[in-house]
Amino acid sequence: MTVREIATTAYSDQKPGTAGLRKKVRVFAQPHYLENFVQSIFDCVPTLRGATLVIGGDGRYHNREAIQTVLAMAAANGVARAVVGQHGLLSTPAASHLIRTLDAAGGFLLTASHNPAGPDGDFGIKFNVKGGGQASETLTRQIHAQSQHIHRYVISDAAAIDIDTLGSHTVEAMQVEIIDSVEAYAELMQSLFDFEAMRAWLRQGHRICFDAMHAVTGPYARRILVEQLGARAEAVLGGVPLEDFGGGHPDPNLVYARHLADLAFGDDAPDLIAASDGDGDRNMILGRGIFISPGDSLAMLAAHLHRLPGYRSGLRGIARSMPTSRAADRVAQALNIPLHETPTGWKFFCNLLDADQITLCGEESFGTSSAHAREKDGLWAVLAWLNVLAASGSSVQQIATRHWQRFGRHYYQRHDYEDLSHEAAQAIMHQLQTRLPTLVGQSLGAWTVSQADSFTYHDPVDGSVAGDQGLRIICADEARIVVRLSGTGTQGATLRLYLERYVSPQGDLAQTPEAALAELAARARDICQLEALSGRTAPTLVT
Ligand code: VG1
Ligand code: CO
User: In this model, does residue 431 exceed pLDDT 80?
Assistant: First the structure.
């Protein structure tokens, strides 16, 4: 075993997006591509030397090779101990938890989340810091800058190690432990939720269905839902992780998990139907005859969380990303606790969580989590709902209806225009941004624009400022349009149009989101000059 220093040249495209570096597999497979980025991280995080490092991924194609590369480079860069999930699997929240509990100096998460996998699919890597949170904007910028003039990296030439068998190894002076991917995470869930109440609820004949979509949460769901809570084995669909996710698109929403909506709205539906995404941080929640939008899920969990063992002392505060519906704001108001509005991306929640200012946070993109981790957590959200059902004796439908009757309903949709040319996307954003000041006071269908601006976030904890975080057109409490460009895509540009409309408890609470938002959607398309600037007349994806 020797450590070798390899000369390399920089790639110009290693700028991480909303959640790490995501590219096509063929881009990552270029010589030195992964190595350059990994070395840039080691160069920017000197505290990894002599420390513990967590490594795991979502199990997609290229995961296993990438893990061996990261291990060989970790050994060469002086890491003392690497902890790797068996078979190379760690869900994003489980990795975050391990980093925290092992007091690791950081973790490498090999994931492109829900993006399709396989030789023609996507791959990704993200670095989480001590404490388990995502790398800050500042660190992300430093890593990118380093990747732009990297000229060498170091790597051990040790043979690949067996990541499928639990056990210990050494690579150079580094100790490697292959650990059970689920155990610590399952213990964490037991400390937060009332497993006995959930078991009793299932024993009474209530049924759940959870789809792991052949991605990373399969082993977690089988262990926790089936082995520990006593759900039937058939309750877990897609429970075996596959390198190509079975050819599917593990992005749980009404389009890519249509079959779950069909199940929920069909005869004999289970009481709770749920799914998670490729890396286990997203969640989708449905009940018999009802889909719970992520913004509603955040608000409803906020209203009920105090019923659950880990949250008996109540919530310190709630945070949501700016485009996420303002449903949680009403609950925060009722509970008399702060509500923070952050930019899109989980990294912006981490300071608030570390400073103990919030207990619960969420995003419209099917992400919810609490202070137990520094990532969004799909199975946590599913267990939280399951526990709320067991503790309250109510159905999902009853919880939602009562919530709307008390707080009113925030109808919500996100319209994605995918694979636009970068020029068209920029033109749309530019023209809208320029016109924003002129929109205030103008009427927008039935509403009047009260505020129109580009969102800037001032982090209350470290004082950092993040500008250009999306354009918003607000019609007081009643309606809102948000427009931003995706930072996770790997092909062309994706424009996201977020639509929200509030209906008070006295109004019509039983509309479909599509009908409730039709007028706002048409106004939003006009305001963005979508057809004129991109030729598109309809979104490619509505979630
Ligand atoms: C999207 C979502 C954002 C989420 C991010 C990572 O980002 O909108 O809310 O935090 O994905 O989630 P963007 O920039 O494409 O809108 V995941 O599950 O892909 O790690
Ligand atoms: Co994800």
Answer: yes
Domain range holding 501? 409-542
C-beta of residue 347 within 8 angstroms of C-beta of residue 357: no
| Shared domain check, 317 and 225 | yes
In the structure, which protein residues have their CB atom closer than 6 angstroms to any atom of ligand 1? Answer: 18-19, 113-114, 277, 281-282, 321, 344-346, 363, 365, 367, 486-488, 496
168 and 72 within one domain: yes
139 Cβ contact list (under 8 Å, min separation 6)? 44, 45, 127, 129
In Å, what is the CA distance from 275 to each residue of 281, 313, 414, 439, 520? 10, 29, 19, 40, 29
| Distance between CA atoms of residues 239 and 233, nearest Å | 10
CB 353 within 8 A of CB 460: no
Residues 164 and 16 in one domain: yes
Claim to verify: residue 155 and residue 261 sit in the same structural domain: no
pTM of the model: 0.95
Ligand 2 mean position to 290 CA, how many Å? 23
Domain boundary among 127, 148, 181: 181
User: For residue 112, which atom of ligand 1 is closest to its CA?
Assistant: 19
Kindly report, residue by residue over 228-267, the tens digit of the pLDDT: 999 999 999 999 999 999 998 999 999 999 999 999 999 9
Return d(Cα 409, Cα 295) in angstroms, integer.
10
Angle, CA of 95, 97 and 98, to the nearest 5°:
65
How many separate domains does the chain show? 3
